[in-house]
């Protein structure tokens, strides 16, 4: 995993989740600070996200767009990434319990298995 991506995720910014093949595509926003990053997954607390969840019934491919102007990018201040992957919702289990302790308002956790991370800016 790219260190610059980790740096971006350690700064506050919007994280945008898009169901790329839905007609129409659905878009949900959260915050970088809410996202738990592991070597191959993103864990995102979810309370709503019903449109994203409904889209997963036919196609669970997503793009997550993240960025921070506090990290140097390819053209100067500001770095941004697209994370391509597949998503599912976790309604229980140890990862859910860990996220629920931090975010008591969640009803489940969006888990994104990372296929590719590409720097865009």
TrEMBL record:
<dbReference type="InterPro" id="IPR012349">
    <property type="entry name" value="Split_barrel_FMN-bd"/>
</dbReference>
<protein>
    <submittedName>
        <fullName>Flavin mononucleotide-binding protein</fullName>
    </submittedName>
</protein>
């Amino acid at each position: 995993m790219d260190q610059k991506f980790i740096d971006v995720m350690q700064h506050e910014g919007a994280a945008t989740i898009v169901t790329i093949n839905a007609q129409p595509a659905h878009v949900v926003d959260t915050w970088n600070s809410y996202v738990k990053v592991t070597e191959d997954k993103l864990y995102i607390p979810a309370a709503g996200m019903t449109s994203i969840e409904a889209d997963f019934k036919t196609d669970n491919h997503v793009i997550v767009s993240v960025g921070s102007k506090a990290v140097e990018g390819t053209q100067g201040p500001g770095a941004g990434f697209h994370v391509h992957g597949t998503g599912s919702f976790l309604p229980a289990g140890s990862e859910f319990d860990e996220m629920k302790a931090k975010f008591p308002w969640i009803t489940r956790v969006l888990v994104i298995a990372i296929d590719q991370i590409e720097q865009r800016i």
